[in-house]
Amino acid sequence: MPEYKAPLRDISFVMNELLEAEKLYQTLPGYEEASEDLMNAIVEEGAKFAEEVLAPLNQTGDEEGCHWSEEGVKTPEGFAAAYQQYVENGWPALGAPVEHGGQGMPNLLGIIINELAGTANWSWLMYPGLSHGAVKTIEEHGDAAQKEKYLTKLIAGTWTGTMCLTEAHCGSDLGLLRTKAEPQADGSYAVTGTKIFISAGDHDMAENIVHIVLARLPDAPEGTGGISLFIVPKFNVNDDGSLGDRNAVNCASIEKKMGIHGNATCVLNFDGARGYLIGPPNKGLACMFTFMNTARIGTAIQGLAHAEQSFQGALAYARERLAMRSLTGPKNPDGPADPIIVHPDVRRMLLTQKALAEGSRALLYYLAMQGDIVTHGTEKQAKAADDLMALLTPIGKAFVTEAGFEAANLGVQVFGGHGFIREWGMEQIVRDARIAMLYEGTTGIQALDLLGRKVLGSGGKLLLGFASMIDEFCEANTDEEDADFVNTLKAYKDEWLGLSMQIGESAMENPDEAGAAAVDYLMYSGYVTLAYFWARMAVLSRQKIAEAAGDASFYEAKLMTARFYFDRLLPRTLAHKQALLSGSDNLMQMPEAIFQL
């Protein structure tokens, strides 16, 4: 398995230099303590935990997997002990509100800790990771009694949380769900139904699991307008907060999966389980989006994590593996062959991994900071940040996970035949990464959300807001040394707006035009979005070099990687543009009867 080394220098660059996190947090009420020194110290401790505790369990957890029995699910050896250490160190409480036992730190720090832990061991991170969404949902929509009963234990990590949406017959179309919730005399509800694909749905790492469940009331209308949201604990909770008897929710089985073997993906049966309505009746889907948006950014981190993990493994191997001679003459004349890192195609793969990982890191950290502005900024600041998150979250979730999977596959390719062999650990990264493009909304679902709801649905307003940011950046950076990056970015921004208008006009005539263009539109949008962040990083790095500020080699590497991104990855937009403009006829005119073997 590749040895994981936390990329602390790059994390510091994005957090402290590019995004100037301390400067922002000094202006947000409640975050004044988030100084650069404190944030650096927290990240460094998180890195140690990831490197020393979680990374050694990654491959063993994959090989052992989880074990199901009627008594419950047992996680791989060492997972439960690592979780107890995680709780004792206070990590679950890092970004939670102080009034419920949290530390009140910015969401950005939580995202960074999740990147570190997830790169070291994604299967393990999923157990505490879903609890953050449960906490945010109860914070936002729970009543005072529910907050009192559940939040403190969830925030402390004594309990964990899940999200229970999917059913076997409905998948992403939640309007078809059948789970029922019958009112009871004591004000609770009897929840009955079966949920599938429940990550961390059962385990031996915490004393209770709080399920956030979508279900229908008896008089609920059909479709998504008839869905309500319920808290259903694994063990019932007494009024004094102590655990009561076992609730009627059981893990019927765990899935045999392609990857993330160390995480239990459960089929959960609710047999009249005692649940409690959270939020208004029939508004559950709207309430769940509090959970879903949090989960989507968390899932995007998986794309970053696997890109980083595969890059580190591939880079170490490319430096050591000897094969053939450089086309320009031997670079290792005393050895039988040159290290493969001297070959252009190997460098193409390594630089693709590096550019995708580091560009994604900048985007996702920026999104995390926007979330902090939404919760702690002024009304005007919060509205602007919320608009940016609305546009960029589907790009972050879908594009970054697609990029992460590409990077994972490139890692196998760098290893050649050895990459296909389990002991090296590179094929596990591919298997683990594949799920990220599926859960919390597939790439296609995210693409429809981006194009249909966020761009066309807002009349272009959300996109224009981000385009204005790009314009401001370009207008503020007119030095000749930056012209290639700035002028290219501006041209792509203009083309992005034009393409959006073209698709919108076509979709007014035929809605299938939007559906046919959606994924290519999202990928185009993702490449341009990362170009914005790479342009920012390039300009900043050039300035640092000119000022002789810090490690020149680091900034030079940033500049070179930015150039690679603009020269070799950003042009991929040309193919996406051609595809999305080709229309829907090449998809929809073929009669269904022709689709036959």
Give an overview of the whole structure.
Among the domains are: 288-445, Butyryl-CoA Dehydrogenase, subunit A, domain 3 (Up-down Bundle); 450-588. The longest helix has 37 residues, at 284-320. The chain is built from 19 helices and 11 strands. A hairpin with a 2-residue loop joins strand 1 and strand 2. With 597 residues, the protein is α+β, with helices and mostly antiparallel strands. Strands 3, 4, 5, 6, 7, 10 and 11 form a 7-stranded mixed beta sheet that branches. Strands 1-2 form a two-stranded antiparallel ribbon. A two-stranded antiparallel sheet has the order 8-9. 57% of the residues lie in helices and 11% in strands. The radius of gyration is 24 Å and the shape is globular. Helix 3 (36-54) packs parallel to helix 6 (107-120), helix 11 (379-415) packs across helix 16 and helix 16 packs antiparallel against helix 18 (573-581). The model has no long low-confidence stretch (mean pLDDT 96).
